[in-house]
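DM from R.C. (forwarded with permission)

"hey, sorry to bug you on a friday — could you get me a structure for this? deadline for the figure draft is monday and I only need the backbone to look sensible"
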Amino acid sequence: MKETVSTAMPPCFERWCQRFDDIFKTKAQRKEFRHYLGGLLGESERKNLSQLAADAVDVSYHSLRHFAVRANGREIDINERRLQVMNSCRQTKISRGFSLIVDDSGHRKSGNFTHGVGRQYIGEIGKTDNGIVLVTTHLYDGRKSLPLDIELYQHGFSLPQGKEDPEFLKKPELALNLIDRTLNRGYHPGIVLIDAGYGNNTSFLFELENRKLKYLGGIAKNALLAHATRTKSDRRKLG
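My reply, with the result:
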């Protein structure tokens, strides 16, 4: 049974979409943007293009795929506009001193045609399997939690030159890039929350300190000792 009829969406949906219209060059792209967003808001657990098209009355897979291909590279512009809209509303305005949550999440995925897919540790199942991993940042200010940025982690095996490929970045490097996006917008977190995957990375912690950021997170006992020793040594050198 079809879930979605685009013409039946509430007026607030259309008003929201209109805020993004100038990002797209053609009327067809603006139309498919509404179809795509409406599909993501649907109740189906699967959010691939085939399922989104199957759930909607007046949407085709080919039109959605054409939109996704042509819109590639504009996801940053769309996300920046989303944050601008959110920050202009009283209910979703980004307040000072928020907590910035840095995390990565893995999701199982069959096949090998999707960028970044391969055998790696998948957090949602707690073991190594075929899938993709995404590095994300969220904010929490005591009342609301909002997504900020997301970046696909591409393991060396998914790149032509492996770990020597210019596009290869480790997860901490991706996380720092996302943190810098937040800082460049003028949003300065009160604290950065990280799990042990980042807390055990001394270089990552020093990069946070170089950015004058406070942080709190999981860390192994030996990593804590090594970090404390190195920090004390650095302070002696600076003194």
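R.C.: lifesaver. Residues 183 and 192 are 12 Å apart (CA to CA).
me: no worries. Residues 225-229, 232-239 have pLDDT under 50 and may be disordered.
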